[in-house]
Amino acid sequence: MSAAPIGLVFPGQGTQRESMGEPWRESPAWPLVDQVSEHSSVDVEELLLRTPGERLRRTDLAQLAVYTVSLMAWREAADAGLLTGAVACAGHSLGEYTALTAAGVLDLRDGVALVTARGRAMRQAAEDRPGTMGVLVRAGLPEAEKLVAEAAAEGHGLWVANINGPGQVVVSGGEEAVGFAERRAPDLGAKLIRVPVGGAFHSPFMAPAAEELRAAVVRASFGPGRMPVVANVDGRPYDGSGDWPELVTRQLVSPVRWEESVHTLTGRLGCRRLVELGPGRTLAGLVRRITPDVPVDSYDAPAARP
């Protein structure tokens, strides 16, 4: 009997934590740390083992750390035979690059180069034009879009940044705009919870970062890959022949359509189980809310070995 089709999902920035690499030090996947360090010119072992949590929140460092740990989780799970039947991938924001690497659309060198360029570009854009983000709970997309329209009428730039699942939409913008949303949310039956980030990600605030990333993307090679990857910007699957340079660049200034992406994995692509690979279990929680009838597992630490 063949294995049930599996979809692989990879987390994004925000799942990093201090000493996140410690459980992986004895893993056969640990040599990936040296490879990522070589390609990025960053001491990734230092990031994963000895960097204080506050510093690890820095956008460029957080993204490289999460990408590396997620790749180790994928490599070990695959080598252990736990991913037999994998037919598609998706990743949340940064996780899209891990998905492209796992799917074979990007090789490790190009994957690391793009994650490094993306993180640095986003950090610089956030420093040049500070912003923030907030999670609207108990609010769907219609309520979030109404809030965005009301903010615009008051002269505030507010945008939908992540459509994560039922009752969870993230908005992005300047401090005043997110403050307006925080005050107005209860009138819509919702509550806004601030996200501890220093940038208005997935909004027009990131336009300079998108232009800088575009220059890096043209130097990367996107191959045919082993399986399709569902794109954040439209929730549709693409193989290696898709216009990934445009998709990943546009992602920086567009909403992450995560709820739609999960429905694509479990519907159109026929995945009967999803596996989250990387630090934390954030995506598994979202998947259970989006498709409660589809089993989801998390692989966020090395398997026990004799």
From TrEMBL:
UniProt GO BP: fatty acid biosynthetic process
Malonyl-CoA:ACP transacylase (MAT) domain span: 9-306
UniProt record similarity statement: Belongs to the fabD family.
Record's protein name: Malonyl CoA-acyl carrier protein transacylase
Protein source organism: Streptomyces alkaliterrae
Catalytic reaction list: holo-[ACP] + malonyl-CoA = malonyl-[ACP] + CoA
UniProt keywords, alphabetically: Acyltransferase, Transferase
EC supergroup of this enzyme: transferase
Domain of life: Bacteria
Active site annotation, chain numbering: S93, H202
GO MF annotation terms: [acyl-carrier-protein] S-malonyltransferase activity
EC numbers for this chain: 2.3.1.39
Transmembrane region(s): none
Coiled coil regions, renumbered to chain: none
SMART domains: PKS_AT
GO cellular component: cytosol
